[in-house]
Design goal:
Number of strands: 0
Number of domains: 1
Shape: elongated
Structural class: mainly alpha
Order of helices and strands: HH
Radius of gyration: 12 Å
Largest sheet: none
Strand content: under 5%
Helix content: over 70%
């Protein structure tokens, strides 16, 4: 649906923001967002 399409775009933007935050954060935060 259109809503799902919009959400998929939002998710990508949020992911990029999260990656930027990880660059400024500690390993614990990285592990929480990207579990190995």
């Amino acid at each position: 649906t259109r809503l799902e399409y919009v959400w998929s775009k939002m998710h990508i933007v949020c992911l990029e923001c999260a990656l930027e935050l990880m660059d400024k954060s500690n390993d614990e935060f990285k592990a929480m967002i990207l579990p190995e």
